[in-house]
Amino acid sequence: MKAIALGPMGIVCWNRGDTGEAESLISTAIELYAEFDHPGMVAVCIEVIGWCQAQSAPDRAATLLGAARTVWQRHSQLKLAQSALATVTRRVETRLRQKLGNETFDVAFDKGQALTLDDALRLAGATIEPRPEAPAPRTTLTRRENQVAALVAEGLTNKEIATKLTISPRTVDAHVDHILTKLGFRSRTQIARWVSAGDDG
Length: 201
Prior knowledge:
The chain has 11 helices and no strands. 75% of the residues lie in helices and 0% in strands. The chain has 201 residues and is an all-alpha fold. It is elongated, with a radius of gyration of 19 Å. The model has no long low-confidence stretch (mean pLDDT 82). Helix 2 (19-35) packs antiparallel against helix 3 (39-52), helix 3 runs antiparallel to helix 4 (58-75) and helix 3 (39-52) packs parallel to helix 5 (79-100). The longest helix is centred in the middle third of the chain and has 22 residues, at 79-100. The chain folds into 2 domains: 3-123; 138-200, Arc Repressor Mutant, subunit A (Orthogonal Bundle).
């Protein structure tokens, strides 16, 4: 079942009080969204897992809500999705503040806001592929492959990359395959992390 179906199903389960099933569905969805580099939907999943843990692990729930806030701010273009969750999130936050106290909630929330995306995913229970310790140099790829890799890191699909670079989608497919092979990667997410590591360096 695709992540696009798992996410809404998880929210439906949460609404009917089945937090265990909701968290199970969302935990599966978040790994798929992360694999295909959809940070907006990753933020949705982190936030909903925060809802699910509000009763059993309020500190963790507050941290997850903080982490989701940062993902929204840094990565997501899905403002409508964020707005759709906002009413429930405010209710959950109110309950967490009542349970933890404002000071404890704020400390946990701020901790979540400071997390990297990978750390936020791990906190939400996702399995994250390790980053390479020493990223391969940019010279490993051709100039065009570096261009394609940079656009993959921006979250563009192969079709969108083809349009942007004025080349055929089949050519983009070939470039992405070459990039994965040369770098020893298996996913677009790993390409995005490699690009990010190079930018940081």
